[in-house]
Automatic annotation (TrEMBL):
InterPro entries documented for this protein: AsmA, AsmA-related
A GO-annotated cellular component: plasma membrane
Start and end residues of each AsmA domain: 6-219, 299-546
Segments for region (Disordered): 647-693
Species whose genome carries this gene: Candidatus Terasakiella magnetica
Low complexity bias (residue ranges): 657-670
Keyword set includes Transmembrane: yes
Transmembrane segments: 6-26
Pfam families hit by this protein: AsmA
GO biological process entries: regulation of protein targeting to membrane
Protein name: AsmA domain-containing protein
Length: 693
C-alpha cells in the first residue's frame, strides 16, 4: 500500500512538472514566428491575403488568453476597397482543462472595432465567395464526410464600435449597420443568455435587449426560450415564447406585439420619406404545424381603424398556399395612407406626366404581364368590414373574396352604399399569354350623398342615387394589350341631386370649367348647383369607344352633352362638350350652344389639351356675319331654331331611350302667348315694333 501511494505521488509530481515545464516553454516562445505560417494557411484556404500587423500575444494560465492586433483580410479583386475585413483587436479567453480533452470553452470573445464589408458585383456574385467553385465543393464534401465539428461553448461575446456595410452591385444600393456595443453574456452555460445591442441602421438608432435561452440550449439544439424587446424609429417590438426545435426552425409558439405613434418613421430606416401613419398597435401569435405557419389572433389598430383575423401559409405542396381571413369594424383608408402621398397625388395634374423623346408618356405599360407571380402561389383571401371609408365615402357590409389558383385570379367585391348595393366579379386568367380579363360589376341605387353624410361630409353632394353596370372583357400580353382589346359596355347613371358649385370641375379641365361656369350663372350665385341626372354610357370595341351624346349632364339651367372618341390602344381622345341653355337662359344673343360647340378635349390621354372645334367656330362666325347682314334678324331665327331643336331630356338620349324633346319654355309666370314662338319670325319681329297684326 505504501509503495502504491509512492507511485501515485510520483506520477502526480511528474504530471505537474510536465505542465509547469510546458507553461514555461510556452511563455518563453515567441509566437510571432508563426505569423507567416498562419497567413500561408489562410491564403491556401481562402485565396485571400491575411495580414497580422500587430503581435500575437498568449497569456498562459488556467484561463489562457490570446490577443492579436491589426488583423485584415483582403477583398475580392473586383471589390470597392482593398480589405474585406479590418479588425483593430481580437481577444479570446478560454478554459485550459477542457482544451486537454479536445473541447473549446471560451470564457469571453472580444472584437474591437471590426469593419466588415460585404458586397456584390454587377452580376450578383458576393465577395464572401472565396476560392474556386471546385475547392468549395471539395471542402463541402470533406465536411459532410468527416461530420460536423463540435461547436465551442461561449460564455460571453463582446463587440465594440463595429461597422457592417453591404453594397448591392446590381441595384447600386448601400446599407450600413453600426454597433456601438453588443454583448451576449451568461454566468454559466445553463443560465439564460442576456443580450444587449446598441447601434444604428442607416443612421437610425436601434436598441435590442432581452434573453435568449442558454448557451447550452443553443449548442445542443434544445427548446429555446425567447424574450426580446426591440426599439427602432420610435417603435417598440416584443417577441416572447418558445422554439421547440431551433436548429430546424420548428415548434414555434411566439407572442408578437408592436406599438408606435407613427409607423411611417420605420420607412425612413429603408430610406423612404412618407407622411404620418398612426398611432399603431399590433398583437398576434406565431405558430407552426406540419409544413405550415400561422399568424393567429392578429389584432391591428391604426388610428381609428382596426383589422383582425388569421393568416396561414401552407408549404406542404409544390405551390405554397396562403389562407387569409380578416375583418374590420372600421377601416378608414386615410388612417393607413401616408399624408404626404395623399397630397402629392392630389396635386399631380395630368399635364405634369413626363414626356420621353418629345412624345407623350404612356399611361398603360407595355411590359409583359408578370404571370409567374400569379402561378407562384395559391391563395384564398377573405375580408369583411362593417364600414370602409374611401375618399370620405362610407361603404357598409363590405366583403371581398379573392381566390388565386394555378394562375387564375377571381375577385368578388361587395358592399352597401347609401341604401344601395354593389357586387359582381373580376376574373383574370393568367395561366398563359395572352391573359384574359372579364369584368362584371353592378351597382344599384348607390346613394352618393347619403354615403358622404355617414362620414360627416354634407357640403359636397346631396342625393345622387347611382346605377353602375360594367360588362367588359379583354385579352393581352401586357396592360397596354388588355386596354387595346377592351370590349363591352360601361354605364354610370347618377340620379337627381345637387353638387357644391365650386366642385363643377368634374366636368373637365380648367378651361372647360371656366367656359361652363360662364354658361351657368347659377353655379356661382348659390352654394349648390342642382342637377337632374348625369350619365356616362360607353360601348368599347377593340379599345375604342365612339359615342354620340351618350355622356350627359342636366342641371337646373343647362343641359350638357358630349360626343367624340376615346382610343385606348393609341391612348388618344377627341371629345367635344356641348352645353345647351334651358328655359329663359336660351334667350341669349349668340346662344350658349354655339360657344359650346367650340370646346374640345383632344390629344394623348396622359396630357390632353383643350382646343377649339373648327366646325363650331365656323358656325358661330357665320352666325355673327349673318347677324350683321340682316341687322340682327338671324340671331332671333337662330335662337328660336335652337330652342325647337334642343333636347329637353339629354340623359334619356344618353341612355338610348327615345327622347321626348320639347321646345324649351320660359318661366311659368309669363303670359301664355309670350311662351309660344310666332309661326312667321319676320312677322313676329314686325309685330314687336307695332308694324303687324
Amino acid at each position: 500500500m505504501g509503495r502504491l501511494k509512492l507511485i501515485i505521488g510520483g506520477v502526480v509530481v511528474l504530471f505537474v512538472g510536465v505542465i509547469i515545464a510546458g507553461v514555461a516553454i510556452l511563455k518563453s516562445t515567441d509566437f510571432n514566428q508563426y505569423k507567416g505560417e498562419i497567413t500561408k494557411q489562410a491564403k491556401a484556404a481562402t485565396g485571400r491575403d491575411l495580414i497580422i500587423a500587430g503581435d500575437l500575444q498568449l497569456d498562459i494560465s488556467l484561463s489562457p488568453k490570446v490577443r492579436v492586433d491589426g488583423v485584415s483580410l483582403s477583398n475580392a479583386s473586383w471589390g470597392s476597397r482593398a480589405e474585406m475585413v479590418k479588425l483593430k483587436s481580437f481577444a479570446a479567453e478560454m478554459k485550459l482543462l477542457p482544451l486537454l480533452f479536445g473541447d473549446i470553452h471560451i470564457v469571453e470573445l472580444a472584437l474591437i472595432e471590426p469593419d466588415i464589408l460585404l458586397e456584390t458585383d454587377k452580376k450578383g456574385q458576393g465577395n464572401w465567395v472565396m476560392g474556386t467553385a471546385k475547392e468549395a465543393e471539395k471542402s463541402e464534401e470533406e465536411s459532410s464526410e468527416g461530420g460536423s465539428a463540435p461547436l465551442p461553448a461561449v460564455n460571453s461575446v463582446r463587440i465594440e464600435k463595429a461597422r457592417f456595410t453591404y453594397k448591392d452591385g446590381v441595384k447600386g444600393e448601400e446599407t450600413s449597420i453600426v454597433i456601438d456595443t453588443m454583448q451576449a453574456t451568461a454566468k454559466d452555460l445553463d443560465d439564460p443568455l442576456n443580450l444587449l445591442f446598441k447601434g444604428s441602421f442607416n443612421n437610425h438608432v436601434i436598441e435590442l435587449t432581452g434573453q435568449l435561452g442558454s448557451p447550452e440550449d443553443l449548442m445542443e439544439g434544445e427548446p429555446l426560450d425567447i424574450n426580446l424587446a426591440l426599439k427602432a424609429a420610435g417603435a417598440t417590438f416584443n417577441i416572447s415564447g418558445k422554439v421547440a426545435e431551433p436548429a430546424k426552425g420548428k415548434g414555434l409558439n411566439l407572442a408578437l406585439s408592436a406599438k408606435s405613434d407613427n409607423i411611417a418613421r420605420l420607412a425612413e430606416i429603408a430610406g423612404a420619406k412618407v407622411g404620418k401613419v398612426g398611432p399603431f398597435e399590433m398583437a398576434a401569435t406565431l405558430s407552426d404545424g406540419d409544413k405550415s405557419y400561422k399568424l393567429g389572433g392578429l389584432n391591428l389598430k391604426i388610428g381609428s381603424s382596426d383589422i383582425s383575423g388569421d393568416v396561414v401559409v401552407n408549404l406542404a405542396n409544390k405551390t405554397p398556399h396562403i389562407n387569409v381571413d380578416l375583418s374590420s369594424n372600421l377601416l378608414n383608408v386615410k388612417d393607413v395612407t401616408p399624408a404626404s402621398e395623399e397630397k402629392a397625388a392630389a396635386k399631380t395634374p395630368a399635364a405634369a406626366v413626363k414626356k420621353e423623346g418629345g412624345k407623350p408618356a404612356k399611361i398603360f405599360p407595355s411590359d409583359p404581364l408578370a404571370l409567374d407571380g400569379l402561378k407562384a402561389v395559391n391563395a384564398d383571401i377573405s375580408y369583411k368590414a362593417k364600414k370602409l371609408v374611401v375618399a370620405d365615402f362610407a361603404l357598409n357590409n363590405v366583403s371581398k373574396l379573392i381566390k388565386l389558383n394555378g394562375g387564375k385570379l377571381n375577385v368578388k367585391p361587395g358592399f352597401n352604399m347609401g341604401g344601395g348595393s354593389f357586387g359582381g366579379s373580376v376574373d383574370l386568367d393568367g395561366r398563359k399569354l395572352p391573359a384574359s380579363l372579364k369584368i362584371n360589376l353592378t351597382g344599384k341605387d348607390l346613394g352618393l350623398g347619403n354615403s358622404l353624410k355617414e362620414t360627416g361630409v354634407t357640403d359636397l353632394i346631396h342625393g345622387g342615387a347611382t346605377q353602375v353596370k360594367l360588362n367588359l372583357s379583354a385579352s393581352g400580353k401586357s396592360v397596354a394589350g388588355l386596354m387595346a382589346s377592351l370590349k363591352g359596355k360601361t354605364l354610370v347613371n347618377v340620379g337627381d341631386g345637387k353638387i357644391k358649385s365650386d366642385k363643377v370641375n368634374f366636368l373637365g379641365g380648367d378651361l372647360v370649367t371656366g367656359v361652363l361656369e360662364k354658361l351657368m350663372p347659377s353655379a356661382n350665385s348659390g352654394e349648390f348647383t342642382p342637377f337632374t341626372c348625369m350619365v356616362v354610357n360607353l360601348d368599347f370595341n377593340k379599345g375604342v369607344t365612339k359615342f354620340e351624346r351618350t355622356i350627359a349632364v342636366q342641371t337646373n339651367v343647362m343641359n350638357i352633352t358630349s360626343s367624340g372618341q376615346v382610343n385606348l390602344a393609341k391612348e388618344t381622345l377627341d371629345v367635344g362638350v356641348k352645353p345647351e341653355p334651358r328655359g329663359d337662359t336660351a334667350d341669349l344673343g349668340i346662344n350658349a350652344g354655339g360657344l359650346a360647340g367650340m370646346v374640345r378635349l383632344t390629344g394623348p390621354l396622359s396630357s390632353p389639351g383643350v382646343g377649339v372645334d373648327a366646325v363650331g367656330a365656323a358656325k358661330a362666325a357665320m352666325g355673327i356675319g349673318a347677324a350683321v347682314a340682316t341687322g340682327g334678324l338671324s340671331l332671333l331665327v337662330s335662337g328660336l331654331t335652337d330652342k325647337a331643336m334642343s333636347d329637353s331630356d339629354p340623359c334619356a338620349t344618353a341612355l338610348g331611350k327615345k327622347s321626348t324633346a320639347k321646345p324649351a319654355t320660359t318661366s311659368k309666370s309669363a303670359p301664355q302667348e309670350k311662351q309660344q314662338a310666332p309661326a312667321n319670325p319676320v312677322g313676329g319681329l314686325l309685330k314687336m315694333f307695332g308694324s303687324g297684326n
